Amino acid sequence: MDALTALQTRTATPRLVEPAPSGADLDAIIKAGLRAPDHGMLRPWRFLLVEGKMRAKLGELFVDALQPQTQEQKDKLLAAPLRAPLVIICVATIKEHPKVPPVEQIASMAAAIQNMSVAIHALGYGSIWRTGPVSQSNAVKHALGFSDRDEIVGFLYAGTPTFTDRPVPEHDQGVYVEHWQV
Question: Among 29, 48, 61, 147, which has the highest number of CB atoms less than 10 A from its own CB?
Answer without folding.
Answer: 29
